[in-house]
Write a structure and sequence with these properties.
The protein is of the alpha+beta class and 387 residues long. It is built from eleven helices and ten strands. It has three domains: 13-125, Acyl-CoA dehydrogenase/oxidase, N-terminal domain (Butyryl-Coa Dehydrogenase, subunit A, domain 1, Orthogonal Bundle); 128-233, Butyryl-CoA Dehydrogenase, subunit A, domain 2, CATH 2.40.110; 237-386, Butyryl-CoA Dehydrogenase, subunit A, domain 3, CATH 1.20.140. Strands 1-4-5-8 form a four-stranded mixed β-sheet. It has a four-stranded antiparallel β-sheet with strand order 2-3-7-6, with helices on one face. The longest helix is centred in the middle third of the chain and has 37 residues, at 235-271. The N and C termini lie far apart (48 Å). The structure holds flavin-adenine dinucleotide. Residues 95, 129-132, 137-138, 162-164, 205, 208, 213, 362, 365-369, 371-372, 375 line the site of flavin-adenine dinucleotide.
């Protein structure tokens, strides 16, 4: 059984349309394969390209660059529906639209936009966002990858860790140090791969098995002139502004995982019999599901509120952090409730509950851990006193 979930009013007809398109696509093309793909650790690249062809891979790329030109609210609706079917597949959308197209639109030159956006829109090229390093995760300003001038271009040397889609990428957003220590010494680049790039092994992980995550090593990799993204020394600002938007899509992903967990718990409890009837008649089974259903609606409203602020061109950093903080906790709790509701079957690989349980956890970690979201919220509350 798939419950519809309750969507907030205030969505436009075009939002409802894109949500319906994503829901139908995910139900037909992703959900039936999700368990098998995850078990085989298969990254469905053909599917990603098909999503590009119908405008679901990077929905926010403007029409002038061959994209559907949809807003951040639509992006959230798409990510939630895809994550409801398979959280790992949703990562590709979050990266393509939220972490690669978004900084290009914010800081790219006309030439950079024209070179990459049409191909990102259709899925001809997949992108990745390479910020994190082995010794610089939450503390992004500590990154050590270095770019040194070489003629009109640059050469990049260093190591990046946990890069989603890094093994599949045709275009790389790379953050590297071009100046001294600290935040002001970092610049961003947008480039294709060059000699000196080594794509590391697939990093073994708890879940999200339909998403590829690798290390990248750059050994004097040449980067052509014209590939710096935004002004020199403003790379970290761009990285953080990008994450302000990206966190909203992670919140949407978390809502999708939570919705899938609730759908599963409701349908299983309605069909499973114990003590002479369905377990759904026990309040001990109903109430945890009722609690997370209420919490999910609150999380979804926070997510769509943050997206609406972004669409209105208003500051949305703290709102996105609140949405991600709350929605990721709801995803983890809802997946736990699903496992508990299914009892032993919840713990087995035969039902989706254990996959949801493993996938939910990542939403509390990437694009800023829950502690980092609290830090963003606290800085918004306290200003400089929190630094
Ligand atoms: C599956 C996956 C995909 C990813 N994809 C990408 C990607 O595509 N691109 C990319 O650049 N990165 C990516 N990441 C990296 C991810 O964003 C980082 O793992 C995350 O930001 C945390 O950094 P860290 O792992 O270095 O943890 P650390 O920063 O070492 O943190 C360790 C712990 O310390 C806590 N902590 C750290 N600082 C503070 C503080 N000031 N106050 C309170 N607590 C603190 C953290 O909350 C955490 O609990 C991905 C990670 C994973 C697991």
């Amino acid at each position: 059984m798939r419950t519809m979930g309750t969507m907030p009013s205030g969505l436009s007809d075009s939002h409802i349309e894109v949500q319906a398109l994503a829901r139908e696509f995910a139900a037909a093309e992703i959900a039936p394969h999700a368990a098998d793909w995850n078990a085989r650790k298969h990254v469905p690249v053909d599917l990603l390209r098909r999503m590009g062809e119908i405008g679901l891979l990077a929905p926010t790329i403007p029409e002038q660059y061959g994209g559907p030109g949809l807003d951040a609210t639509s992006l959230c609706l798409v990510v939630e529906e895809v994550a409801r079917a398979d959280a790992g597949t949703a990562v590709a959308i979050a990266v393509q639209a939220g972490l690669v197209a978004s900084p290009l639109l914010r800081a790219g030159t006309d030439a950079q936009r024209e070179q990459w956006l049409p191909r990102l829109a259709t899925g001809e090229v997949l992108g990745c966002y390479a910020l994190t390093e082995p010794d610089a995760g939450s503390d992004t300003a500590a990154l050590r990858t270095r770019a040194v001038p070489d003629g009109d271009g640059w050469r990049i040397t260093g190591a990046k860790q946990w890069i989603s889609n890094g093994a599949l990428a045709g275009v790389f957003v790379i953050f590297a140090r071009t100046g001294g220590e600290g935040a002001g010494g970092i610049s961003a680049f947008i480039t294709r791969a060059g000699d000196g790039l080594a794509v590391g092994r697939e990093i073994p992980k708890l879940g999200l098995h339909t998403s590829s995550t690798v290390e990248l090593a750059f050994d004097d990799m040449p980067v052509a002139a014209g590939c710096m993204l935004g002004p020199e020394g403003e790379g970290l600002k761009l990285a953080l502004a990008t994450l302000d938007g990206g966190r909203i899509t992670v919140a949407a992903q978390a809502c999708g995982i939570a919705q899938a967990a609730i759908d599963l718990a409701v349908s299983y409890a309605s069909a499973r019999n114990a003590f002479g009837g369905p377990i759904a008649r026990f309040q001990g089974v109903q109430f945890p599901i009722a609690d997370v259903a209420a919490e999910l609606e609150a999380a979804r409203l926070l997510t769509l509120h943050a997206a609406a602020l972004r669409d209105a061109g208003k500051p949305h950093g703290a709102a996105g952090a609140k949405a991600k903080l709350v929605a990721s906790a709801v995803a983890v709790k809802a997946a736990d409730v699903a496992v508990q509701t299914l009892g032993g079957y919840g713990y087995s690989g035969e039902y989706d509950a254990e996959r949801l349980y493993r996938d939910a956890k990542i939403t509390e970690i990437y694009e800023g851990t829950s502690q980092i979201q609290r830090l963003v919220i606290a800085r918004d509350l306290f200003g400089d006193a929190a630094r």
